[in-house]
Amino acid sequence: MTRSDTTAWIGQLQIGDRWAIWRGEAGDGAPHRHFAAQAVLADIPVRVFDAQERPVGAAIVLIDPLTPHRIEAGSEVKLIYLEPGRGLDPELEAILRPVRDAGGLALISSVQAIPFWAAWLAGKSGRHEEPDGRITAALRHLDRIIAFGPVSLEELASTTNLSQDRFRHLFAEQVGVPFRRYVLWRRLRLAAAELVAASDVTTAAHAAGFADAAHFARTLKSTFGVTASQALIRR
Predict the structure, then answer these.
(1) 233 has a pLDDT exceeding 70
(2) So what's the pLDDT on residue 169?
(3) Which of 19, 17, 8, 123 lies closest to 65, judged by CA?
(4) Each residue's pLDDT tens digit, 152-168
(5) Spacing of C-alpha 85 from chain mean position
(6) Distance between CA atoms of 112 and 50, rounded to whole angstroms?
(7) What is the percent of the chain with per-residue pLDDT over 90, rounded to a whole number?
(8) Least confident span in 68-72, 124-128, 170-174
(9) Across all residues in the chain, what is the average pLDDT?
(10) 4 — pLDDT class (breaks 50, 70, 90)
(11) What CA dihedral angle connects 129, 38, 233 and 189, to 10 degrees?
């Protein structure tokens, strides 16, 4: 297979509220990291490279959130992305259940990672037993306003009657990631949904509240290692 055959990401993307599944052929991508926990599933072992470009080969590769990595181009894969710190959709839990019993899986993590997969493999869902209602309400408010532009921590803190510092700490504790990083992840999800719906890059960027298409393109590249044009390719 020539390099020109492997540059494109060719597949289909399915997006849920706090998860996404991509199925197809992996293309060229830069090393990147993102907020989601990621499972790479393949019929035959696939190579995933860590931050030091060391290859890890397995039919199932689990990647902790915020762990730098890239997937070898040309591999037929199913990529599952999950927001950590939240309960799993029952349908998605059913898809992932066989992973717990699989042999020969590999885990890629890093010192800056959120340790998601070890807990999940031990039977923990990653859900807080008693989620704080103030943060739950703030997340709902965030989703209502995120498409309209900048979202300030001050505004969301005011909906909870907490100081900004207390809200910042409680948000990170409950959600598992700092406020700003979470907001960026939700914008990317909205923009990806627009791309799946056949919107152009500019429309997708504006629908997700990015300042412009260039900002969206830079964020997409740094988060997923692909360009907006690669993300638009379908089977």
Answers:
(1) no
(2) 94
(3) 19
(4) 999 999 999 999 999 99
(5) 12
(6) 13
(7) 35
(8) 124-128
(9) 84
(10) very low
(11) 30
Which pTM was predicted? 0.79
Cα dihedral 225→11→81→184 (10° resolution)? 50
Q: Name residue 230's amino acid.
A: Q
Distance (Å, rounded) from C-alpha 98 to C-alpha 100? 5
